[in-house]
Write a sequence for this structure.
């Protein structure tokens, strides 16, 4: 009747060359979005909505990002 989620988290294939991992947080609503920001153009690419610490950990796991690399922007 109940099924376990036995699906393993796969690492995403993503070219991180010249990009910085960033979590953007809205000042008004507090909504957080994780993605990568291009160093040259400043363009931000949203990849995942962050609702909890578990979502943040999942982003770091899937996109192979270390805690020290992750920046926060408002």
């Amino acid at each position: 009747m109940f099924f376990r989620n036995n699906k393993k988290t796969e690492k995403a294939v993503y070219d991180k060359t010249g990009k910085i991992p960033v979590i953007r947080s809205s000042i008004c609503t507090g909504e957080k979005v994780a993605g990568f920001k291009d160093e040259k153009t400043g363009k931000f690419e949203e990849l995942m909505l962050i609702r909890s610490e578990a979502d943040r950990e999942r982003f770091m796991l899937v996109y192979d990002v270390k805690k020290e690399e992750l920046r926060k922007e408002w």
Remarks:
- The first helix runs from residue 53 to 62.
- The mean pLDDT is 87.
- The chain is about 15% helix and 30% strand.
- The two ends are 44 Å apart (CA to CA).
